Amino acid sequence: xxxxxxxxxxxxxxxxxxxxxxxxxxxxxxxxxxxxxxxxxxxxxxxxxxxxxxxxxxxxxxxxxxxxxxxxxxxxxxxxxxxxxxxxxxxxxxxxxxxxxxxxxxxxxxxxxxxxxxxxxxxxxxxxxxxxxxxxxxxxxxxxxxxxxxxxxxxxxxxxxxxxxxxxxxxxxxxxxxxxxxxxxxxxxxxxxxxxxxxxxxxxxxxxxxxxxxxxxxxxxxxxxxxxxxxxxxxxxxxxxxxxxxxxxxxxxxxxxxxxxxxxxxxxxxxxxxxxxxxxxxxxxxxxxxxxxxxxxxxxxxxxxxxxxxxxxxxxxxxxxxxxxxxxxxxxxxxxxxxxxxxxxxxxxxxxxxxxxxxxxxxxxxxxxxxxxxxxxxxxxxxxxxxxxxxxxxxxxxxxxxxxxxxxxxxxxxxxxxxxxxxxxxxxxxxxxxxxxxxxxxxxxxxxxxxxxxxxxxxxxxxxxxxxxxxxx
Length: 473
Hints:
Distance between the termini: 89 Å
Strand order of the largest sheet: 3-2-1-4-5-6
Oligomer: single chain
Number of domains: 2
Number of helices: 18
């Protein structure tokens, strides 16, 4: 007896469709691998986009429902119009967004992905053919949190929303989690009528949206890289749940890749901040506070000419960038200064703290845009042992990530957080507009160290003047 497609209950189109999803998954893996290095990141985006395009095209052409019918022509038209409009809007946003607003853009993208997955779960719960009740509830839960939490993160990053550091927020979040778990367990038990379950699902949607808000609101600006990566993992999980609902391998694999990458990054961010993941989940993460008062000392300034001489006649210089560099859009002139110093025989490296900036990898992206060689970017754990041999550490727009209070002041809210040990360099030049505090809202006593000199002013203008001084030597 011969086995045919008909006896197996499949068509050649089904085989081709499933194979296209496998190929798309391979493209996703290649894209993720190449995204791990700035030199190949652009190509990695193309690989991943090609995988998604392949999955979309084959789905539109080959997908069949339970009756063997394809997608209705009216729905195909709606899908194509939606994709075209979204592509135009996305291309415009990507080309016009400022580098300083990239964290906000990432949060917005997280929100849209979460919203889409939550809507899928909400709609499919009422579908009699949907047998994945648990997956649907989890998709609704994670998608809703990702949407509302990401929108709050967007507002906080954009300066439109402040922080709420009330102590009761932690207990409120724990209460919401208990209610959410109770609803999921009760619906899964199957003892209630469909109408009751539907009302509970709407309640789950509302509470999850509220929890997304209360979860992100207490998180301070210095800790936003962690919450962004966590919300990114939630979006991936929600997308994977939507894939399980539709039994769509491309959605499942894509969601798993995003969710696992976001989870791994979250763990790394927590380690970099010396925080626990549990504190992130309940919202007791970061926030305001102040270290115990102690004598600050005197601030010592340095002139542009003296700074130029000190840098030009050094053997090893380490630049430590922070969010202030991004705000001033000074990355290009910063690289120009580094190139000038290298021409004079100075070894120049850029020390990258894992949570410098407003999102994971913010400084890497910023400096890659300025064509700083990737080999010149050194991570915190690798640069710290060499700091005592550094002639000059140039701190540009960074604050909390170089604050010695993290290891010498137990009363500080950032105590225990790993930092770049700029204070161990022979000389420190700090470029700031003023004596303002960082996101942790505490004094940075690095500014008062004997080996520290302040160079006040806008980072871009100061660096431009410094470049001119170096050229004139």
